[in-house]
Amino acid sequence: MMMYRVGGMLWVINGAIPILISMYIWKLVSPETSQISIYFIGAILFERITQTWSLGEISDRIKDGTLAQTLLRPYNYIFEIFARDVGSKANRLVSTLPFVVVLWFVYLPQYNFNPINILVGIPALILGYLVNFYLNSSLGLLTNWTGDADGIARTLDVTKSMTAGLFIPYMFMPQAVKDILVFTPFRYIFSFPLEIVLGQLSSNSLLFGYATIIFWSLFLVFIFNWLSKKSMKYFTSHGG
Question: E strands, the chain, where?
């Protein structure tokens, strides 16, 4: 049991190290150090909340043939993937929250607590997770054609890291880049809800952001369902 707890804590620290390094870099180049601290502390928490493992889960089930067992059950297999995803997330958040609290007291960032911003940001956080979940799930289904999704997963991770605001805060990006990213799903995975909670968005930006994240949520659900039906024609169970 002790080894499990230590392993969980090491997982949290290892995942937070790149984000903390980015925080130190941005604190060196920007005078708004307190705003940067609260952004990256929030990024550690929000990234964990919207994190998903559905791409690997679906890809592995296709490769080892165990997806065939799920297809025989009287419900869509995505519900089982979703339940396992949420369960894993809840378990790992238990380790993440104490770490975030420690960072808060270490850096003591200036944050004007506004319950309205938090309430408005919660639906965006949920939608951000759904965007990430269905984006990953859709790409996981490509295993039926490619035979493996490891390369796709790595490409997606790098793309999200650079465009979702995880290492480069959206507020520091060039305007030309921001004008492009507002139409992509990546910004809305966790940067958009974080910007809401931190009170960094105008009313027009908030409305546009919610319209865009709702669009991507519905669109990716449609893409997943379409790919799911198409991919079953190519699915072959080997063992499992």
Answer: none
Among 169, 212, 121, which Cα is nearest to 25's? Answer: 169
The secondary structure of 7-44, three-state, reads: HHHHHHHHHHHHHHHHHHHHHHHCCCHHHHHHHHHHHH
Which pTM was predicted? 0.87
Radius of gyration of the chain (CA): 19
pLDDT in tens, 96-150: 888 888 888 877 777 777 899 999 999 999 999 999 999 999 999 988 888 788 8
Using CA atoms, how far residue 58 sits from 62, 81, 82, in Å, is 6, 8, 11
Q: Are 108 and 38 in contact (CB under 8 A)?
A: no
DSSP assigned state of 219: H
Total Cβ atoms within 10 A of residue 9:
14
d(CA 197, CA 105): 19
Q: Which of 169, 172, 34, 40 is nearest to 112 (CA)?
A: 34
Measured distance CA(18)–CA(20) in Å, rounded: 5
